[in-house]
Input
Amino acid sequence: MGNIVSELFGTLVFNDSVMKERLPKETYKAMQKAIQEGRRLDLSVANVVANAMKDWAIEKGATHFTHWFQPMTGVTAEKHDSFISPIEGGRVIMEFSGKELVKGESDASSFPSGGLRSTFEARGYTAWDPTSYAFIKDRTLYIPTAFCSYTGEALDKKTPLLRSMEAINKQTLRVLKLFGNDDVTAVRTTVGPEQEYFLIDMDMYNRRKDLIYTGRTLFGNKPPKGQELDDHYFGTLKPRVAAFMAELDEELWKLGVLVKTEHNEAAPAQHELAPIFSTTNIATDHNQLTMEMMQKIAKKHGMVCLLHEKPFAGISGSGKHNNWSISTNTGVNLLEPGETPYENAQFLLFLVAVIKAVDDYQDLLRISVASAGNDHRLGANEAPPAVVSMFLGDELNEILESIETDSAYTAKEHVQMKIGVHVLPRFPKDTTDRNRTSPFAFTGNKFEFRMLGSADSIACANVMLNTSVAESLRVFADELEGAEDFNTALHELIKRTIKEHKRIIFNGNGYDDAWIKEAEQRGLLNLKTTPDCLPYYAHEKNLELFRTHRIYTETEVRSRCDIMLENYCKIINIEGLTMVDMVKKDILPAVSSYIKVLAETGNAKKAFCPGVDCTYEENLVFRLSELCGVVCKQVIDLDEKLTQARNSIGHYAAANYYKDVVLGAMSALRSNVDEMETITDAKYWPYPSYGDLLFGIK
Ligand code: ADP
Ligand code: MG
Output
């Protein structure tokens, strides 16, 4: 199999080795330059590349091409065109020009734009991103592209991501120059996103309207056995799941996705996939492909892949861990502690750059993971809290403390931490223990941002990370470039940054309520929900950040905010309506029928044996009838509130109404319906139970 995998890997990707083999030398060089420097290609060069791509794709069975893009819906979009071009005699030839490769035009009016693109100007453009390889899927050549409006505003997730990568590249190069790294010409951030998901049986899924319409269960009780025995985590794979994973790996390998690890997660029916890290841009494209393939391949195996952040109440939700670092084109990971004091000084500067970034832009990091689905997760006792903080581990913490206070690093060694001047001890490797509760943890040579929801595109989180760290580095470079004595200035800068930003560092248990209180005392933000955090998006300090690094214009920020709020409202509205539908059409009728049977049974018993004890039937009839009455009122109430919410004027008013009023009505209704489920004969309950769903795959 090993040999087969290496032969299989990347077979559907127009990657470097294909380009080397198929492009004329000069074209290949120009292409390399475009990839490394993110430059545009001349049309003449693009023509040659397009032709080679087309020939290669046709040999692989492709008949169509598509500009593949990532609008703000969070999923990818595509429009397929065939390669055919008519010639005389009623025949066709297969053609693909440089122009078609480089730029596409598509009707953008049905994609969310937050008011950026009025309907009379519905044109949107897609522009080829040569830094992410083209690939073949479903007999179609996929060309990764950025998507923008006629006037150049970003309508997608890739454009700002590429802008943020450029920003951090520029500022990191300035800093590296100060340390004398003249050989480095480009810097990229790298990401390895660990993806969690649930697999459930398709027949059961099809019997649950809530899963079909909303991706999560809106009713349901935790089964007697949940995840408390930890017997699922890393457990043996069920044969159906193993077959799914094997096919998923194979299909993703063909597409050049570096899938490395597949295992069972904490909750029953929950699993995880982790790839080997790559450049942020490619990691983002690959994560989108991974999510899409998971859903597609699950169906082939008679299962449904749930990517929702919280499909089941009372059971762990699904997240995505965004492992992030910065690498040079010479192959150096800038977050790897070095062997020498000199290297360590540089490492420490990058470390404090991240600390400062996370502290200064907590709000943006929180916003980057905000969604109606993820709100259920953050703050529940299984995922990081909504408060952003950083975990560094004891060792690194001690080092920072000793720098801050100019004191000895350890009692044993008595080494004073003076960066670049005195000898710094070697950093012990792998000292970071595995703190699982921190939203943002240093894990030896990278940071792991753990607040992302499983369904999120990772683009936004990385835009915020790249940009906020670029800003720290910009400020640092400004200061150090003007310094008289580099070493002294460096030492002072690191020391001051630690002092100013150490409030963001927390090495304890993030699930602890006491921490939330302490965090508030430290002045950290606790933005619990999407409508709570979104007002921060357009704060002047953030607009300033985006302007400085040319990530978003103010219009782009405001439009993104509107889209997120609108989306939040739509999701809760659909959930509310689904609940109303389920209760009215399925649940109340089912419980009523069951009540009738109970009452008839009780009467029959009494008729048969006068004076017999019928408390079982009587109590149940009584409680269920009572609950039916309450639920009936609650469902009318929810329905009215949903109408109210839809009539709210303004995005914030609507979102806050959904958050403060509608969600409350939904959970009140749920708790009574869930009680009904526990006392209703399973034969009468109209939906598969949590137990069926979570333990249904053999
Ligand atoms: P965990 O124990 O959290 O599952 P792993 O060691 O398996 O952690 O790594 C998790 C992810 O981190 C993998 O996708 C891996 O490729 C990625 N990773 C490792 N090094 C880097 C790096 N320098 N930059 C970005 N991601 C990285
Ligand atoms: Mg992890």
